[in-house]
Here is the input.
Amino acid sequence: MSPQNEQGVRVVIGGTIDIECTINGEPVAVETEVRRSLSDVIRHEVGLTGTHLGCEHGVCGACTVLIDGKAVRSCLMLAAQADGADITTIEGLADGDEYHPVQQAMHDAMAFQCAFCSPGFILTTVALLDRKPDATGDEIKQELSGNLCRCTGYQSILDGAAKAVELMSETANPPGQPTADQASGERSDV
Ligand code: FES
Ligand code: FES
Here is the structure.
């Protein structure tokens, strides 16, 4: 463990640092160089190569992971900053053989071609729908505008994200089941 300054902040001058975090629900402990990015540690030291690197400048979004539920560009973050974090990569979304609804919706919409950009788009969509399950088309477009795709022209990805909203709503309110408003006697049309 590195020494701390008077404010309780860990002070690291150079060399290596020990990091402990959770990745996809598994505890991970690595010793890495202090200068390494989180994306490099995830790919090269933890071996999760689903996190892709496009620009390494924070522009393309391919390297997006979830940190404590928020979409973060892992090429712009030092691994040392992720000490203690709860990280989700694309490998952690599916439940066994069952896709996450956003993955399923993107698959159904044939959203991607080469799929190099797909981890970033999917995780960005997951973060959006976690905080706004009823996101509109404009809100989806706005949120995904920071991710770049070189193949599709984007419409199929936007269609996939819109399908994910539908799919997650159906999962939350299966046909024949009352919605939360109906169950509580609230009118949903007012
Ligand atoms: S590789 Fe991180 S934003 Fe492009
Ligand atoms: S599908 Fe090829 S970069 Fe997006």
